[in-house]
Amino acid sequence: MNFPSSVKIVEVGPRDGLQNEKQPIAVADKVALVNALSNAGLKFIEAGSFVNPKWVPQMAGSEEVFAGIARKAGVSYAALTPNMVGFERAIAAGADEVAIFAAASEAFSQKNINCSIEESIERFAPILTAARAQNIPVRGYVSCIAGCPYEGDIAPSKVAEVSDILFQAGCYEISLGDTIGTGTPANIERVIELTNKKVPLEKLALHAHDTYGQAIANIYRAFQMGVSVFDSSVAGLGGCPYAKGASGNVATEDVIYLLNGLGIAHGVDLQAVITAGKNICASLGRVSQSKVARALSSEKPGNCT
Ligand SMILES: CC(C)(COP(=O)([O-])OP(=O)([O-])OC[C@H]1O[C@@H](n2cnc3c(N)ncnc32)[C@H](O)[C@@H]1OP(=O)([O-])[O-])[C@@H](O)C(=O)NCCC(=O)NCCSC(=O)C[C@@](C)(O)CC(=O)[O-]
């Protein structure tokens, strides 16, 4: 099988993972998580989000998170920015790169960022201009690539269309978000095929959620097709506040285990990520959603009594 020879893992736990938590999370816990992930060898970490704190209260302390982290050379600390207010906050906080986020579903766009897809593209334009002037890379998300919590199935052609617009506008990478995890290898394949007619494969990422247990299968299929960038979240933390029922992102530990099995270089210390996951789960009082972390942490592997 001709897989890409290396892989980029984008760790979204501190942002996508924590944004959906119900209980307050101390800035110190967020900072410790980001530091543990960079120490584990992760090179791209979404450390926060500069959205309206009234919409997503868990991301309100993102300035403090960026101020508190121990920056590691060679690590890119990214932030989500929905508009120019968010972009300016992110730059002031010292984000190395930003991400804008559109959707392939009109209803999701309205619920998530309070505007239509077209209006969102207009809002992103000044971010792209300002980012270019300041040499800040901009990543583009397209949510609901397989299904939408409000509209149901989404046409792959719509995903290709929105991806094309973001790529043409200057995003260096397009992350295809299976927001509610309804995708299966067959429809993820179709989405990638069509989107690849507009955006080169090496500029595409898959952002898989594991709601239906399909995330690793979807990543494997995308990887077979030549996609080499995968978003994941330590301990499988996450969900989306505007996608009811969306469970966590695919766990970083599970992606690393898959890559180890395939003999693909990734530069990340699995055990260190498991420890980072254990610590944040202890702070949150929740159980890791990573099957690999759970299997490797159990005292008697394979014992199912
Ligand atoms: C986009 C907005 C801001 C529009 O929200 P809006 O209410 O339409 O904004 P507005 O421009 O009308 O402004 C209203 C107020 O918000 C303030 N405001 C405006 N912008 C900001 C900002 N950046 N930071 C701080 N404050 C801000 C603004 O200053 C004003 O304050 P006021 O005058 O009333 O005092 C809002 O809808 C929002 O913040 N949405 C964020 C939703 C969100 O974060 N969703 C989760 C992330 S997306 C996701 O998880 C999917 C993804 C990426 O992971 C991929 C996948 O899985 O699919």
Automatic annotation (TrEMBL):
It is an enzyme of class 4 (lyase). Keywords: Lyase, Metal-binding. InterPro entries: Aldolase_TIM, HMG_CoA_lyase_AS, HMGL, PYR_CT. This is hydroxymethylglutaryl-CoA lyase. Residues 7-274 form the Pyruvate carboxyltransferase domain. Pfam families: HMGL-like (PF00682). It comes from the Bacteria. Its EC number is 4.1.3.4. One of its GO terms (molecular function) is lyase activity. The keyword Lyase applies. The lineage of its organism: Bacteria, Pseudomonadati, Pseudomonadota, Gammaproteobacteria, Cellvibrionales. Pathway: Metabolic intermediate metabolism; (S)-3-hydroxy-3-methylglutaryl-CoA degradation; acetoacetate from (S)-3-hydroxy-3-methylglutaryl-CoA: step 1/1. It catalyses: (3S)-3-hydroxy-3-methylglutaryl-CoA = acetoacetate + acetyl-CoA. Belongs to the HMG-CoA lyase family.
